[in-house]
Amino acid sequence: MSLLPLLFVGLGVVLLLAAWAVWHQGRRIRECVRDLLALPDDMHPMDWPQRASTVLRRAGIGGMAWRGQWFGDPVQGHWGQPAQPDWTHLSLDAGPDCRIELSWAGLARTNEAKALALVVVDVFVQSWLSRMRERTQAVAVALAQRAHVHLYWQHDMRNLAQWVGLMADEFGSASPEKLPRLAQRLQQQAPLVLAKAKKLLEATQAGAPLAPPPSPAFSPVFSPPPAPMPSPPSPEPGRAAQAEPPPVPPVPDPQPTVPVLGVVAGAAQLAGLSLQCEPAHGTSLTTPHTTALHARALERTLDNIFSNIARDGGARVQGRALRLTWAVQGEQFQARLLTPHLSTPWPERPFEPMQTHTGTGSGLGLYQARRSLRDVGGDLTAQPTPEGIAFEWRVALCAQRQIF
Predict the structure, then answer these.
(1) Would the pTM count as exceeding 0.70?
(2) Could you give the angle at which helices 292-311 and 365-374 cross, rounded to 10 degrees?
(3) Which residues contact 183 (CB under 8 A, 6 or more apart)?
(4) In which domain, by residue range, is 291 found?
(5) Looking at the DSSP assignment, which residues form a beta bridge with residue 80?
(6) So what's the pLDDT on residue 367?
């Protein structure tokens, strides 16, 4: 009977030591997780396993090996014990171009120590996978943005090529009597085409934004410079001059603006179309202006609309001026353009991409025309009417100036 208390005391001591060991291991694992999360965020994802090796060793990992593909390039690495076939394996998938096979070996002997070590490995794996996905997603976003810009460049180059083809057709089929008139029209269009070509060259060479500064053909009308301030009078003789007030810093010039109607008229002139612009009933006599960014988006939209009208056989036969009605609603410029009857049947879903109905286009014309305006907060719609196709669009304004 005297041994029973000693047995209970010994069992209690063993349980206390086991609890202390588990607590100590848990504390070490918590410190390892904290150190893992404290590693720098700006390191390359492929440097992550090597930088985390010290923490993983403390957590009870004896060795780690990895190999796979990183954006098409083979990658591999190893630290600790030599890799063995019986190591634990795990596949990490961060996208179609980034797949890594990871394997590791643990040094823990007890189940409790193994479970705690697996906690650190799980944090390591999730952190590494998160870093890889952040990099792959950033690359995907950059590629998508670049593809978006290149799509617009392709759209602009196609419009220029269509203009060249249209002019070549007209000159090729013109009689000698019509050549002077065509030459005069070409002379009028030359500044517009040159400005458009320069914009495209600058954008493609320097990776410029989608909306370079406006062309000289649509330069805004700036206010005249202020009159010079008169010189301050000299102090009277014998009287001390008072301290002059500090100079007032000059007010920066406002950002250049572009007249919206000038953009519309230039796009129609470039396509060789006559345009009759009328303000809607009740519209004040102002000159709507917009920023260069919005003007570039509107110019791209109108290039697509007008070039398609100019190439349509039915519209060329009628040869009458297009009617455009515009209005200013708050800070938005709204316009409605009515085309003549077009020989090409109007599709059921005209703005759906990759659905060309003529067999000669890319299937992105009207989609890009609407997308260009929507990218800057505007919009474009189209609806067939008994008289023709009614295009309606809106774009943001930045200023309104009185017409004198």
Answers:
(1) no
(2) 160
(3) none
(4) 174-219+255-402
(5) 63
(6) 82
Residue-level pLDDT at 264:
92
Is residue 333 domain-shared with residue 212, that is, in the same domain? yes
Look up residue 386 and give its two tokens: 């008994």
CB 81 within 8 A of CB 62: yes
Q: Structurally, how many domains does the chain consist of?
A: 2
- Rounded alpha-carbon distances, angstroms, from residue 198 to 77, 216, 261, 329, 372: 50, 11, 22, 33, 20
Structure tokens that stand for 201 in this block: 């060259």
Determine the Cα–Cα distance for residues 360 and 349; give it in Å rounded to an integer. Answer: 18
The full DSSP string for 39-78 is S-SSS-GGGHHHHTHHHHHHTTEEEEEEEEEETTEEEEEE
pLDDT, averaged across the chain: 76
Side chain identity at residue 155, one-letter code: H
Name the residue type at position 369.
Answer: A
On whether the CB atoms of residues 337 and 391 are closer than 8 A, the answer is yes
Reported as a single tens digit per residue, the pLDDT across 14-59 is 677 666 665 666 677 788 888 888 888 788 889 989 999 998 888 8
Residue 359: half-sphere exposure toward Cβ, Cα within 13 Å: 2
* Same domain for 382 and 263: yes
CATH (domain of 317) = 3.30.565.10
The answer to whether residue 163 is domain-embedded is no
Look at 299 and 21; give whichever has higher pLDDT.
299
Q: Are residues 199 and 71 in the same domain?
A: no
CA atoms within 13 A on the CB side of 188: 15
Instruction: Determine the Cα–Cα distance for residues 66 and 128; give it in Å rounded to an integer.
Output: 12
Residues 126 and 178 in one domain: no
**Most confident region among 158-172, 206-220, 259-273 by mean pLDDT:** 259-273
- Residue 14 Cα distances to 110, 167, 334, angstroms: 16, 97, 84
Residues 91 and 206 in one domain: no
Relative orientation angle of helices 3-37 and 111-173, to the nearest 10 degrees: 20
Q: Is 303 among the domain residues?
A: yes
The predicted-structure confidence for 347-386, as pLDDT tens digits, reads as follows 888 887 766 655 455 556 788 888 889 989 999 999 998 8
